[in-house]
Fold this protein.
Amino acid sequence: MMSTRPRPVTRRYFLQAAGQTAAAIGASQDLSGAAPASIAAEAPLPPVAAFGKVFQPLKLDFRQSAEVTAEAGLNGVDCAVRPGGEIAPQQAAEQMPRYAEALARYKLRMLLLSTGIQGVDSPHAHEILAAGKQLGIRYYRLGFWLHRPGEPAEKLLGEIRARLKELAAMNRDLGMCALVQNHSPWNSNGKGPVGGDLNELHGLVKDFDPREIAVAFDLGHAIIVHQDEWRVQYEKLAPHIRVVYVKDVQRPSRFVPFGQGEFGRSGFFPMLARTNYCAPLSMHMEYEWAPKGQQTRAGLVAALKANRRVLRQWWKGA
């Protein structure tokens, strides 16, 4: 069993390590080129981040979240810095470094951010991104825009493009990249976040430099929205994809423990491996990993470990 005994770490060491690791992770992000099959087959598993939303039901503090992540054999976290998240936006400047230092004691990192940012004028956007840059974080997910009933989609898309253009300029200065995630509808009326349809998402991001505005690709949601046609949409979107979210899904729209759904037989990881993908994979557990009222720290570690084992098998099979 992996030891979770903290190792002494100085702030100077922590900041140096954060910058060096970020440079390594960001060194190869272009998904438009294909590697020879032999190289793809030998590619190591990219860093795996636990999406921090999974820690919140247990009310884990930063140290406890770091311990669970280490025990599960993961490489770090995708930290939710948003209203109702692990860190409230107004507390980002103070708490993000604290969380990162707790992770560094186990040689882990804050690998990604999930935010509610929708523009340069979003509350506390500058504080969040400045703290992220200081910690060597390259990618942050934007908040969602919802389609408006009775309003032409193109009007809303035009408004979003204008906001993304301003964000792109800020990201260029910071050396960071904003991610738009594809997400299936949240309810039965079929309306949901902008970009859930991959064709719509492509139209939204296609004119932006993917070093500044890019896509967080979620195969689970792509299968829900596009069924077997997701591959055609993915190929068009691939040059804009910079981060991948991993969750397993059973049709029509049920998320399940890794290995019980369609992800493993989708052929997606072989496609991804051929692109020299090495950014973090964000592990999302959007299912009930234990019955309500019976969720424990040990149970969470076991669920994370099990998912990681399956994820590694998927990747090796690529």
